[in-house]
Amino acid sequence: MKLRIKVINVVLLVLAAILSTTQPVFAKETKITRQDTTITNHLITNGDVTRTFTKNMQVNNATSIEVTNVQELQQALQNASDQDIITLAKNFTVDADFSISKPGDKQVTVEGNGVAIGEYTMTISGQGSKPLILQNLHFTAASQKQAIRILTNIPITLRQMEFIGRTHLQDGGAVLLGVSDAQVTVEQCSFMENSQSMPGYSGAAISATSFRGTLTIVNSLFRNNKNLAVGNASFGGEGGAVCINQALAGAAIQIRDNYFVGNEAVKNVSGNKAKLADGGALAVFNIVNTASLTVEGNTFAHNVAGDDGGAILIQTNDNMSENIMLKNNTFYRNVAQGASNDSYSGGAVQIYANGGLLQGRNALVVFEHNTFAYNQAKRAAGAIGGSGYATNTSGGRYRNNLFVGNVASDPTFANIRQKATTLEDLGGNVGIDNGVAANFQEHTILGNYPTTLTTNHSSKTAGASLSSEIIPTLPIKPEGQADEVTPMIQQVEVDQRNHQRIGIADAGSIEQSWVKYDANGGNYQLQALETSIGDAYYEPDALQDNRIHTYYYISCINQGKTILDGVHDLQIVRDGYQFVGWSKQANDTLGDLVYTPGNRISCLEENITLYAVWQEDQLYDVLYDGNGHTAGEVPVDASGPYAKQNSIHVLAHGDLRKDGYEFVHWNTQKDGSGSSYKANDTLVMDGATTLYAQWKKVDLVEKVDDTIVVDAIDVPVHQQTEQIEQIEKQPPETADSQRVYGWVVLLLVTSTGFITYVKHKKQQ
């Protein structure tokens, strides 16, 4: 183990001591008011963005102080009373690194008001057992600058903070816990694009060394934080986002409800120290059995370790049995690149038992209700690797975990490989192997469609309000191999999303509840799913007729659902039958009013199957009525009869005639007061239907004499010819009321000359 002595910035400590003896001098802008109230949903506006704080704080006779620069902040802290709130003004200025200190046993809150600290470093010290709370501050990009250095063991809470783009040459690219007994809570904070790049150091976002204090990280986002260099001895490069180097006696570490995505521990590392590039997101190094580690409710996705533990490295330095717990976590597509070619690499998690050559320690980690999906290791242990030095061994105790789609070069260790120690399968697990390939197919667990992380009925978020994200999880297939696996040991628990687990538990990090709609002889004419996102699932029945016969409406226990309409929502059909409703009994003929479409029900611990209720079709004809016609035949619909709700196309009137009238359209009422239809219009059947012809009277045209008289035409005597000419003028009506479609002029030219006009009728 490499020992390092951390040098404390003496200058900053001396400056803090001097300031603590200085009398307060407030600028003109400083405002001091007394208040006795309860602060709830405190809204802070920064530019165009409004931030909401959901913590409720009881404030009794507290002082609210507004400060405009670092000196005023330091003075306000020195003179603060218990429960005081110090607010940074919108125009608060910082032009250099600075320190703050809380004196005495007083709780003080520094409300950052959305102020950006810029490229500077804040060093925190103080006294007393009551906390110093810092909230709503932004630390923006800076080269070789940590954002916060905590050099005190007073309780410190960092809430609604953003740390973006900080780079540092040593531990803690963003936040350093600089004393071994620090008590720090990180709540609703965002750490993005931070890095550290000096060999021998770790933790690009948060780092602590020789730690015996308390560290609680909750509802925070760690995205794209990176260690860029490995060590030059036995440590350095671990924990792409968070690293605890030596968790000593008394250390209590809780990592709960966070989202770790895209973090890296020296990706693509090479050289003889490549074995140090472990724990792509989190590393806890040399933890002892009088310390505790709880990792619960988190999602680790797309993290990469250059060597082992694509998401997490847990290195023990003692016999361990009960004090390390991983519960209700999702591990998705993490990668251990295996630069040192270890056979126990752990695509998601590596446990490594440290100890003497012949010490023979055994370290066990409890894994309960975790999902490991599509993680990858170079050689073996695509999900979890249990390794150790020499005679020291490590492994897990497993209950209700799900392993699916994990990849390693040895398929018999695609999910787990443990060194020597017996794997403890406590029941309810799906996919355990450890040398014997798991006997299942991926689609029986996740379904036939591409599956990825989704919000999946969760409202739990990670990160400061401006950059917060829903913590995603992975849906499972209803009635698949991971659904309802084993009875619960405890009566009531919660899953990763904080939804209840009751009755028979699902394997993995989520507990789903569903309503199954069984078409009961019919089928659903729905478009094929493109991906499974956890709200509905259906697939064609390849063994029957390749149609959809079941539809799962997915929810959570005790979460309300609306009963779906079979026709409008699910497009249910059955030849010769009409959909009536739903029932829990497959042979019902009336339907259960409790499950009337539109009603709300609560999904209980037992999943519900509802069967479609059908009534055999009554068939109806469509009749056509000439409604006083005088000629022609009434149309006959030879395709009928039809069931209710069937759609038909209305026929044309054909040769149907009525003297002195012309046909207009059909109508469902004889007097034309019903619904009108033209030829080829769509009519939806609602019972027996008669369509009546509707007629419009035609006005007669007045008779006129259309005789044309021509007396004579002069032509030369010697010329004789015959010519037929078509006249284009619109012809008049003739005396016998027969329409003339043209006039033929027969021109016979003689010495005297005359013209005869002859009517030419259209050929029938």
TrEMBL record:
<dbReference type="InterPro" id="IPR011050">
    <property type="entry name" value="Pectin_lyase_fold/virulence"/>
</dbReference>
<dbReference type="InterPro" id="IPR013378">
    <property type="entry name" value="InlB-like_B-rpt"/>
</dbReference>
<feature type="signal peptide">
    <location>
        <begin position="1"/>
        <end position="27"/>
    </location>
</feature>
<protein>
    <submittedName>
        <fullName>Putative repeat protein (TIGR02543 family)</fullName>
    </submittedName>
</protein>
<dbReference type="InterPro" id="IPR042229">
    <property type="entry name" value="Listeria/Bacterioides_rpt_sf"/>
</dbReference>
<dbReference type="Pfam" id="PF09479">
    <property type="entry name" value="Flg_new"/>
</dbReference>
<keyword id="KW-0732">Signal</keyword>
<dbReference type="GO" id="GO:0030313">
    <property type="term" value="C:cell envelope"/>
</dbReference>
<feature type="transmembrane region" description="Helical">
    <location>
        <begin position="740"/>
        <end position="758"/>
    </location>
</feature>
<keyword id="KW-0472">Membrane</keyword>
<keyword id="KW-1133">Transmembrane helix</keyword>
<keyword id="KW-0812">Transmembrane</keyword>
